[in-house]
Write a structure and sequence with these properties.
The protein has helices at about 40-60, 60-80, 80-90, 95-110, 115-120, 155-165, 180-190, 205-215, 225-240, 260-275, 290-305, 330-345, 380, 400-405, 420-430, 465-470; strands spanning about 1-5, 5-10, 10-15, 20-25, 30-35, 120-130, 130-140, 140-145, 170-175, 200, 220-225, 245, 250-255, 285-290, 345-350, 370, 390, 410, 415, 435-440, 455, 460, 475-480. The protein has about 500 residues and is an alpha/beta fold. It has 2 domains: about 1-250 and about 455-480, Aldehyde Dehydrogenase, Chain A, domain 1; about 250-440, Aldehyde Dehydrogenase, Chain A, domain 2 (3-Layer(aba) Sandwich). The strands form 6 sheets. The protein has a 7-stranded mixed β-sheet with strand order 15-16-17-14-13-19-20, sandwiched between helices. Strands 10-9-8-11-12-22 form a 6-stranded mixed β-sheet, with helices on both faces. Strands 1-5-4 form a 3-stranded mixed β-sheet, covered by helices on one side. Helix 1 crosses helix 8, helix 2 packs antiparallel against helix 4 and helix 4 runs parallel beside helix 6. Bound molecules: nicotinamide-adenine-dinucleotide (NAD).
């Protein structure tokens, strides 16, 4: 049995807490590795190493820090297949989807190569007589991030690339479900020229997370995961005086107007609803067709597409649409929610229960499900299922459809499919959700924009990546300078004003 490690001070180190978690191969159901779960003492050791290394890294000029990112991009491309394979083996997603996970992180690293420009600061010449004023962006010090299982490459890179290029040290606490890729990323950063101690991976569970939250030296905490944990981390971290940003769960609605191209809408829904087995925070989990006639046409187009989906292990390469879910517990949770849908009266149009694959009977596969005629009060509508289950809620008109999305507690992403520019424009303006697609089902912004939901999908003020990341990972310091030659009249006792 492979025993995974932490990555501290530039080296793989064995866990010393004596506690481990199982890492599964979701396709076979086998335990393929054990990951150590750090104690508070192990976390403290990593923090001390980071604190000792960080000032020298912050003093490296931003161009040189950016060059580490350039080299890192090369190495990610060099090792893309290896990273994708390791990612699929622990997560279960298909190989092309795993390569996409690495690629979307890589694009944030590319953006970070612009750090010398992005960190330039502001300057006012002659802000007063003989007075100059300038603002600089300084690194926070030791920063930390806690990441979910569903994007084990992209989300760590969303956090550590901007944190590090800004001159911080970063401690990553990845998901204990799929920790191998984060460890590989840390190795590659070091190969790219990053000094030891600036990026460390400390594996663990709540104990490691609490050690981060209560550590005096750690200045900021980034979190992506489920909403209850996001809420806990935000509240606890803020109470400890840290800068915190937390991104939570989702229930993304796609509204299908009567004038939409129904083939395009059905194709989009199948990809966005079932891709990665629905384990994406930007997955579409609710379809809202407007009018019964639209709903009937949509269901007619969806059913054959869903029934044709190919579910299988990543080893089948491009021949698979989606793989297993991450754990047996995730599978059981999805199945339980599907049962509530049936019990509460939704119509199960495509039944993915009891899905089994020859040779992979112990894998965590879940067949595709489609519910029609679900209503607002049902659990399958209110809760995040995070599985291959699409729920259709029929709306009688546009106002009812937009109202559904607006009233839902989550506000990560949403989409409208229509040929009507006026409806699309109204939707984009009024909707209280952070990321909006118009005839685009998964509107994940590119690296140079920012990513973030609204409502219970986020806790904090700044988004991920793009310009917001450079604000989150730096503090502004403003200097007002007057040189002695400017002081000729003796002391001043009233507040200076610009007349
Ligand atoms: P999770 O909340 O279970 O775990 C996320 C992280 O928190 C992991 O590192 C885990 O070890 C840690 N954690 C778990 N329980 C904890 C506890 N009690 N105390 C402290 N830390 C704890 O989430 P997950 O299952 O890994 O990921 C799926 C969730 O993440 C979904 O809800 C999904 O919508 C969400 N997600 C959101 C975004 C976004 O940007 N909004 C992106 C990806 C995933």
């Amino acid at each position: 049995m492979q025993e995974l490690t932490h990555f501290i001070n530039g080296a793989h180190v064995a866990g010393t807490s004596g506690r481990f978690a199982d890492v599964f191969n979701p396709a076979t159901g086998e335990v393929q590795a054990k990951v150590p779960l750090a104690s508070a003492a192990e976390m403290d050791h990593a923090v001390q190493v980071a604190a000792a290394a960080q000032p020298a890294w912050a003093a490296v000029n931003p161009q040189r820090r950016a060059r580490v990112m350039m080299k890192f991009v090369d190495l990610l491309n060099r090792d893309m297949d290896k990273l994708a394979e390791a990612l699929s083996r622990e997560h279960g997603k298909t190989l092309p989807d795993a390569a996409g996970d690495v690629q979307r992180g890589l694009e944030v690293v590319e953006y970070c190569i612009g750090a010398p420009h992005l960190l330039k600061g502001e300057y006012t010449d002659s802000a007063g007589p003989g007075i100059d004023m300038y603002s600089m962006r300084q690194a926070l010090g030791v920063t930390a991030g806690i990441t979910p299982f569903n994007f084990p490459a992209m989300i760590p890179m969303w956090m550590f690339a901007p944190a590090i290029v800004c001159g911080n040290a970063f401690i990553l606490k990845p998901s204990e479900r799929d920790p191998s890729v984060p460890l590989m990323l840390a190795e590659l950063m070091e190969e790219a020229g990053l000094p030891k101690g600036i990026l460390q991976v400390v594996n663990g569970d709540k104990e490691a997370v609490d050690a981060i939250l209560y550590h005096d030296v750690i200045q900021s905490v980034g979190f992506v995961g489920s909403t209850p944990i996001a809420e806990y981390i935000y509240g606890t971290g803020c109470a400890q005086g840290k800068r915190v940003q937390c991104f939570g769960g989702a229930k993304n609605h796609m509204i299908i107007m009567p004038d939409a191209d129904m083939d395009q809408a059905a194709d989009a829904l199948v990809g966005a609803g079932y891709g990665a087995a629905g384990e994406r925070c930007m997955a579409i989990s609710v379809a809202v067709p407007v009018g019964d006639e639209t709903a009937d046409r949509l269901i007619e187009k969806l059913v054959p597409r869903i029934e044709a989906l190919k579910v299988g292990p990543y080893t089948a390469g491009k021949d698979v649409d989606y793989g297993p879910v991450v754990t047996a517990a995730a599978k059981a949770n999805i199945e339980a929610l599907v049962q509530t849908g049936i019990d509460q009266g939704a119509e199960l149009v495509v039944d993915g229960r009891n899905y089994s694959m020859q040779g992979y009977e112990d894998g965590f596969f879940v067949g595709p499900h489609l519910f029609d005629r679900a209503t607002k009060d049902m659990d399958i509508y209110q809760k995040e299922i995070f599985g291959p289950v699409l729920t259709c809620v029929r709306a009688q008109n546009y106002e009812e459809a937009i109202g559904l999305a607006m009233d839902h507690e989550y506000g990560n992403g949403t989409a409208i499919f229509t040929r009507d520019g006026d409806a699309a424009r109204d939707f984009a303006n009024r909707i209280n959700i952070g990321m909006v697609g118009i005839n685009v089902p998964i509107p994940v912004p590119l690296a140079y924009h920012t990513f973030g939901g609204w409502k219970k999908s986020v806790f904090g003020d700044l988004n991920q990546h793009g310009p917001d990341a450079f604000k989150f990972y730096t503090r502004t310091k403003t200097v007002t300078a007057r040189w002695p030659s400017g002081i000729k009249e003796g002391g001043e006792f009233s507040i200076p004003v610009m007349e």
